[in-house]
Amino acid sequence: MDDVRYQPGEAVRWLQVGAEDRRRQAQRQGGSVWRREGERSIGKDIKQIAGALTELGRSALAEVAHRQATAAEYVLHDKEFESVEGGKVRTVRYEAILGIRVKGDKTSLVFEQGSMVIRPHAYVVAGRTKVPVGWRRNGLEVPYELLIDELAARSGRSIEYEN
Fold this sequence. Notes:
The chain is of the alpha+beta class. Helices cover 39% and strands 34% of the residues. The strands form 3 sheets. The chain has a 6-stranded antiparallel beta sheet.
């Protein structure tokens, strides 16, 4: 059987777009302080620069989130799977999984010694509805839950849902 790769869905690219938009906004906001003519106020200038620095910080956080999401993946092999996050690779044999617990969007894989948590990398929010971004399974967009279902099938364990 070929390896199966689960990577965060295409929607995480919006984190990159958001970071770029915030960075441009901060540059416009900070640059306007130096171009202002006429009556100047130190208080207004400080307030404007502080706002620009805040936007730069937010853009940096969005950039970090995007890089972490695009570097993460789960690779499913015949007898084991690998979790790759932040440059750290963890290999787990399917037979080592003793239980799979799902609470909301958070999934815990329970082992004899320890556990592993799988969470969505991002959410799509529309009004009051919040949906986890799915995966690209070997290049095709699939729902978020498919990875959990496939891990349960390969390990022969049932999924326990908690409230």
